[in-house]
Amino acid sequence: MSVRILFLGPLRDLADAPEMLVEAPLDWAGLLAVVGPAVAAQLGEARVNVACGGRVLADKTALAAQDGDEVALLPPVSGG
């Protein structure tokens, strides 16, 4: 039973990997514990979003990923 975490954009560089598999279930505290301190610090920023099962969470701290879920860590998008 696992959850796939996808690191997108600059978070991929901080994690030094495009993705990781972790034990399910996964909540916010568990996410912060497994992604490493550099990524965890970025997740605390309001502009960084978290999606679970293809839906961006309105409250990322309410993360409740279950077996087979994909959690995407979405850094702010720049452009113009």
TrEMBL record:
Pfam families linked to this entry: ThiS
Organism of derivation: Erythrobacter mangrovi
Residues annotated as signal peptide: none
SUPFAM superfamilies attached to this UniProt entry: MoaD/ThiS
Domain of life: Bacteria
Name of the protein in its database record: MoaD/ThiS family protein
